[in-house]
Write a structure and sequence with these properties.
InterPro entries: AAA+_ATPase, ABC_transporter-like_ATP-bd, ABC_transporter-like_CS, MacB-like_ATP-bd, P-loop_NTPase
CATH class: Alpha Beta
Keywords: ATP-binding, Nucleotide-binding, Transport
Family: Belongs to the ABC transporter superfamily.
Protein name: ABC transporter, ATP-binding protein
Number of helices: 8
CATH architecture: 3-Layer(aba) Sandwich
Order of helices and strands: EEEHEEHEHHHEHEHEEH
Number of domains: 1
Oligomer: single chain
Strand order of the largest sheet: 6-7-8-3-9-10
Strand content: 15-25%
CATH superfamily: P-loop containing nucleotide triphosphate hydrolases
Bound molecules: adenosine-5'-triphosphate, magnesium ion
CATH topology: Rossmann fold
Structural class: alpha/beta
GO molecular function: ATP binding; ATP hydrolysis activity; transmembrane transporter activity
Helix content: 25-40%
């Protein structure tokens, strides 16, 4: 009998994941067509692909916000298809943080209350959480804005609040759907620096989606998706080239161009 695969070393593993959306009229749309991949614990991965290619769908499945039509989503070695709604919610709360393109802050709560809210839901001791939140908000340059409401902040500041909120419970996995999509390049850089630091300092596994190659350049690995399929997917270890390889490829291209001109 073949030995069972040991997936505990991965933060996220997908096995032949398909996602079919059915609308109210019964029309079906196949968003993912069989995705298999492994993301190592502590890795920083960028998900790239054209609009409609399935990035958000994939992140939703990785975050157990949605379930695949078929295939398996394995988080920290645990197969989520065997878990009920309550268990999934527990897993999400204890393991996964989310950052969305539109920040998703609660408009009537202060910056500080937005950040501490998820911990209150969990019933975690609030004094320590409040102190941690204040310290982290100060670290990202928002120490003076704890009592402001989201609409009094710039887009970049709101996204920093959203990232602090996602990190305050020290999730082992952070999923960010176009976290810099609405930001100017300076704010985007601040946000990416925070994500990079969280990844290196807390060993958080970060997966972000982006259309921007410069943003993807912050990641250690890039996964390319098109029409619901991984590109260059030759095996279950579906991404196997890094930014370093891409840079080498760019260098080679430059040299080829230079030679062509000679
Ligand atoms: N709830 C839904 N019902 C029906 N179809 C959907 C639903 N959500 C997404 N889709 C379709 O699935 C495909 C993948 O969508 P998804 O949002 O994952 O793409 P994306 O890569 O995140 O695109 P973008 O870069 O524009 O955010 C799209 O063609 C979309 O229209
Ligand atoms: Mg999307």
């Amino acid at each position: 009998m073949p030995k069972a695969e040991d997936l505990t070393r991965y933060a996220i593993s997908l096995r032949d994941v398909h996602k079919v959306y059915t609308n109210k009229a019964g029309m079906q749309y196949i968003a993912l067509r069989g995705i298999s991949l492994d993301i190592e614990k502590g890795d920083f991965v960028a998900l790239m692909g054209p609009s409609g290619s399935g990035k958000t769908t994939l992140l939703d499945l990785m975050g157990t916000l949605d379930t695949p039509t078929s295939g398996r989503v394995i988080i920290d070695g645990t197969d989520t298809s065997e878990m009920n709604g309550n268990k999934l919610a527990e897993l999400r709360n204890s393991t996964i943080g989310f950052v969305f393109q539109s920040y998703n802050l609660i408009s009537y709560l202060s910056v500080l209350d937005n950040v501490t809210l998820p911990s209150k839901v969990k019933g975690v001791a609030t004094k320590a959480t409040i102190e941690d939140s204040e310290a982290m908000l100060a670290e990202v340059g928002l120490g003076e804005k704890l009592e402001k409401r989201p609409n009094e902040l710039s887009g970049g500041e709101q996204q920093r609040v959203a990232i602090v909120r996602a990190f305050i419970n020290k999730p082992r996995i952070l999923l960010a759907d176009e976290p810099t999509g609405n930001l100017d390049s300076k704010s985007a850089k601040v946000v990416l620096d925070i994500l990079t630091r969280m990844c290196t300092e807390n060993s958080t596994t970060v997966v972000l989606s982006t259309h921007d190659p410069e943003v993807a350049g912050f990641a250690r690995h890039i996964i390319h998706i098109r029409d619901g399929l991984l590109e260059n997917a030759s095996s279950t270890r579906s991404y196997n080239y890094s930014l370093h390889d891409l840079m080498n490829e760019k260098e080679k291209q430059k040299k080829r161009h230079a030679n062509d001109k000679k």
